[in-house]
Amino acid sequence: MSDAPLRAEGLECIRGDRLLFSGLNLTLSPGQLLQVEGANGAGKTSLLRVLAGLSRPADGEVRWRGLDIQRNRTTYFAAMVYMGHAPGLKAELSPVENLKVSAALRDRMVDDARIEDALARVGLRGFEDVPARGLSAGQKQRTALCRLLINPVPLWILDEPFTALDVRGIALVRELLEIHLANGGMALMTSHHALEVRGDCRSLHLT
Ligand SMILES: Nc1ncnc2c1ncn2[C@@H]1O[C@H](COP(=O)(O)OP(=O)(O)OP(=O)(O)O)[C@@H](O)[C@H]1O
């Protein structure tokens, strides 16, 4: 038996009257990327939300370092960043303010310089103080990506991270993923884009 930090066993998910999956097992070890694939409605988001501890499976269990994530949510949430479909920004706050709030929710103080560096890295130099409602969809997504840069955690759970991104934005996500994996990080991701990422990449197909 491997000592993979993330382990899901016997997961079952029911939405409405539809059984999306059952008996689903997976593990994730340092340096691994698991891409969850499947058609629209197959249950990718539902699976990622279960793996992120945001919804409960009808059956089965997700464990992080041997502990049930639902009973050890604080520990798990400190080790993981979840990026959902929507960028999750407060419209009236600037990228800097949004990222400070995001860090504060993790009990972390992040100085402005670090946030500004992250924004520059994702191509948002000059937009630091623009309220999020004044950003394009791709700029909002780039702001959300900064959460990966300012919160160093071992596990990234990314639902459609390429949404609204241009070609350079997609390349940026790939680069961030490759660096994360090379540093021993782990990532779970859904995407409708076929993406070649260097590293230990696996896929899970939901039907
Ligand atoms: N809040 C909800 N209540 C009931 N059923 C839901 C709810 N959210 C999603 N579903 C259903 O669950 C199924 C899986 O949805 P999910 O969003 O997990 O799919 P997905 O594979 O991520 O799809 P997409 O590729 O379109 O993002 C769909 O059939 C959907 O209709």
At the first level of CATH, what is the class of the largest domain? Alpha Beta
Q: Give the class from helix and strand content and strand pairing.
A: alpha/beta
Bound molecules: adenosine-5'-triphosphate
Shape field:
globular
Please indicate the count of domains.
2
Estimated radius of gyration: 17 Å
Element-by-element helix/strand order = EEEHEEHEHHHEHEE
- The rounded distance between the terminal residues' Cα atoms is 27 Å
Overall average residue pLDDT: 94
Number of helices: 6
Strand order in the largest sheet: 6-7-8-3-9
Strand content: 25-35%
The tally of beta strands, per DSSP, is: 9
Keywords: ATP-binding, Cytochrome c-type biogenesis, Membrane, Nucleotide-binding, Translocase, Transport
Organism: Methylococcus capsulatus
Pfam families: ABC_tran (PF00005)
Protein name: Cytochrome c biogenesis heme-transporting ATPase CcmA
